[in-house]
Amino acid sequence: MSFILNIETATKNCSVAIAKNGETILCKEIAEEGYSHAEKLHVFIEEVIAEAGISVQDLTAVAVSQGPGSYTGLRIGVSAAKGLCYALNVPLIAVDTLLTLASQAQVTEGKIIPMLDARRMEVYSEIFNAKLEVERTIQAEVIDENSFENITETVYFVGDCAEKCKTVLTRDNFIFLENIKYPSAAAMSKISFDKYQKSDTVDVAYFEPYYLKDFMITTPSKK
């Protein structure tokens, strides 16, 4: 019997889920503009464990979003996950935030491109096929009308970039799934369980998440 606590705080969505053998039992989450992670995360952790009818000692692992994402959100999530792993002596599992986001698309064909907003027209993105196999690893890029033009299959975009990106990504094979805006801990359950079964864990002491940082270097305008 495997109970894994999944923590997703890489974006504005503060999300916590309990999974039993890879199936989500309970999930609590809230997405707020002001980032409520510091206030909500530990409350959600206590609530999902209690409502699942288990104790914290029943956890066999803790999974946390590894980014890319906001510095503040990831720092809070990883700190909580590490604290639990130390206290319970259970393994820590790191889950790719963009994979979690892509898995929420649940399509049977084409490509899935999850994107997280950076600033202006900049995003962090990754390309998956419908089986959630990575076809292009995470990149920081500026989106324009020529982005992803070499993909002839249907492309499903997910993430918090739809509003700004759909104005330039207008090809007929591009579809924005605007209802999938943020990654959810509920979508981490199968991914974290697969990693747990393979002993694909990270060092609790040395693990650092992949923070979403400004990646464009601009030259200050002359006065």
Task: Provide an overview of this structure.
The chain is an alpha/beta fold and 223 residues long. 24% of the residues lie in helices and 29% in strands. The strands form two sheets. A five-stranded mixed β-sheet has the order 3-2-1-4-5, with helices on both faces. A hairpin with a 4-residue loop joins strand 1 and strand 2. Helix 1 packs parallel to helix 2.
Itemize the secondary structure elements and their pairings.
Blueprint: E1 3-8, E2 13-20, E3 23-31, H1 37-51, E4 61-65, H2 71-88, E5 92-95, H3 97-103, E6 111-117, E7 122-129, E8 134-142, E9 155-159, H4 162-165, E10 174-176, H5 189-197
Parallel strand pairs: 1-4, 4-5, 6-9, 9-10
Antiparallel strand pairs: 1-2, 2-3, 6-7, 7-8
Q: Quote the beta fraction.
A: 25-35%
Largest sheet: 5 strands, mixed
Mean pLDDT: 92
Q: Strand pairing plus helix content: what structural class?
A: alpha/beta
The N- to C-terminal Cα distance equals 65 Å
Low-confidence stretches: 214-223
* Tally of alpha and pi helices: 5
- From the alpha-carbon coordinates, what is the Rg to the nearest angstrom? 18 Å
N-to-C order of helices and strands? EEEHEHEHEEEEHEH
Q: How many β-strand runs? A: 10
Q: Which strand order do you get reading across the main beta sheet?
A: 3-2-1-4-5
What spatial form do the alpha-carbon principal axes imply?
Answer: globular
Helix content estimate: 10-25%
